[in-house]
Amino acid sequence: MSFRSFGLGQEAKILKANEYATVFKGGKFAKGKYWQIVAKPINAYTPRLGLAISKKVHRLAVDRNRYKRIARETFRVQKQQLEHWDFVVMARRSKSVKNAILSAELLDLMKKVTQD
Fold this sequence. Notes:
Layout lengths: L16 H10 L1 E4 L3 E7 L6 E4 L9 H18 L6 E7 L7 H17 L1
């Protein structure tokens, strides 16, 4: 019996501070009502995601974790269309809204940044 995980593997995550710095330094920036993202083209085939969900923006851990879950799932589902890019996703201060709206806006921002 084999077990297949649908989560993001280590190769799909930005983990180190210098990797975040590289994306912030030379990346394209996009801002929406609920998210802001920075994306940078890379030579690797596999896209990567970094999350920077601030405690200053969302005080409660449950809110921060919700934004992280939505960002990871949106990225995982659309990973094939986002190849050759590194993304750093940040949440903006906002009222509570449905998950589908958050996911749709994040996807729109990702597509906008990669097509410019």
